[in-house]
Design a protein that fits this description.
Layout lengths: L1 E3 L6 H6 L4 E3 L8 H5 L7 H11 L5 E5 L3 H13 L4 E5 L7 H22 L5 H6 L11 E6 L4 H11 L3 E3 L18 H13 L22 E9 L4 H12 L4 E6 L6 H15 L13 E7 L3 E8 L4 E8 L4 H16 L6 E7 L10 E2 L2 H12 L5 E5 L4 E6 L5 E6 L8 H11 L3 H7 L14 H13 L4 H23 L5 E4 L6 H11 L3 E2 L7 H11 L4 H5 L10
Parallel strand pairs: 1-2, 1-3, 3-4, 5-6, 5-7, 7-8, 9-12, 12-13, 14-17, 17-18
Antiparallel strand pairs: 9-10, 10-11, 14-15, 15-16
Length: 560
Amino acid sequence: MIRYVCKYTPVELLRGFGAECAVLDEAPESLELGERASHPNLCGFGKAVLQAALAGRADELVLVNCCDVMRRIYDVLIQKGCCRFVYLLDLPHTDNDCQRRRFAREIQKLGDAYAATSGQTFDRARFLAAFETPCHGAEPYIALLGARAGSALENRLSAALDAPVRNLTCVGSRAVSPAGLSGAEGDALITAYAGALLSQLPCRRMEDHAARRALFEDPALLGVVYHTIKFCDYYGLEYAAAQKLCAAPMTRIETDGSAQSEGQLSTRIEAFAETLGRRRAAPAPASGDYFAGVDSGSASTDAVIIDRQGQLLGSSILPTGGGARKSAALALDAALLDAGLARSKIARVVATGYGRENIGGGESVTEISCHARGAHFLRPGVRTVIDIGGQDSKIIRLDGDGRVLSFAMNDKCAAGTGRFLEMMARTLGLTLEEMSRAGLEWREDLTISSTCTVFAESEVVSLVARNVPTPDIVHGLNKAVAAKVAALLGRLGGEGEYMMTGGVAQNEGVARAIEARLGEKITVCPEAQLCGALGAALFAAGLAEKSSIDKEPQIPRKLK
């Protein structure tokens, strides 16, 4: 079985030699072998290819030198000698008569190399019978675009979005036409075949990729999930341009080639489904007088109890620990105690946050939709929500009815999150409350140059050793958080009124640093940390659109 990773691979030629061919399509649980054999900054997909080959799952492999990563993989595999047959095909990055002839020679070299290894001969009839014409109906669909993505991600999207998904990334968009080949022989046949391969919809790495614009202008397009790979910036550039071209809703996800980071990926996909209306965000109305929302986060678990009118009756904020289900039960019990209600009085519980699927016994809505709903309920004029929680930060754009228009989340990094501030506070010997106050007393406008949590901690230790005043250091850290927020807003765009939610919103120094960076006033409600749980409770009560109707949201009587 010959595995391949690029749509320009001459699969039909190899099948003409009697070979079976299949896309190298896997997301390994670990990239340990690939990381051990490569540079740390090799892209995630490159490490996944190495992992498969070194683990014996790609004994025959054809690579295409579309980028330097493929060259490095080839060098490693040749050195390791772990593949029975491995070949690096030289691909032209332009499509013209000269390059087609050149590519034909490279294809012929591949054929000769495989014939020498396998002992098989080329059969023209088998070659012509190997062409497959992809067939897509005219029904609306979700496009999976960007960097190469496998069937696991495609299937996951299809299930979550409840719509047909077309994988138009790399090998997923392979479409080679046999037109004009049937009457050709010998060198003319291979040259015509080279032209058929090069005339496919160009990948991003081709010099002329203007035809890709059609991918974003299809009237049947319901939405776009744009995939990027860690340590590869080619497709990130196209994503930035596509945001201006594409009229359909679009979201960006990043993977590292492995099956890791399920939490963030689930949140992004499910939130996009809710944005598209492909997933029911608001549960159907329920009978009863009291409703609960539970926000199961990485740092805290929050719970809110409301009545049918949206009046907040009780709440709780507890540290997350001992498992999502246990923390949720404790938080809900505390909120019920605060409200003076028995559990039997609660008609419905909706969960949100990273632990939402593990709480059990209730329905769930993503924190994107819940923070949007809670913020809109409290301040109907809000159009941009900045949510900074324990392990991530998000920017959420709302319309006038509180529905999510678009959102962006930080990448898999603690920088700019509550965890970042918690670690820095520990380094400085401060509580989070002390850190919040210290950030308002600075005198020197200090800048922390590193945005990496580990390197920033080293920088803080160095500043402490130089007797730099603690308030100045804290101010530098607050500015670092503000810079991360500004970068997210730069990707998505923002519009006033701005509101800050999540636990970090209680840190006044951070809020002021973000205001200074953006040049915009930011609203911070007393309910900021409870905003996600409040939104979940509003969904539970079926009050999703309440504040957009009467524009007079209920003001909570108290917060604990």
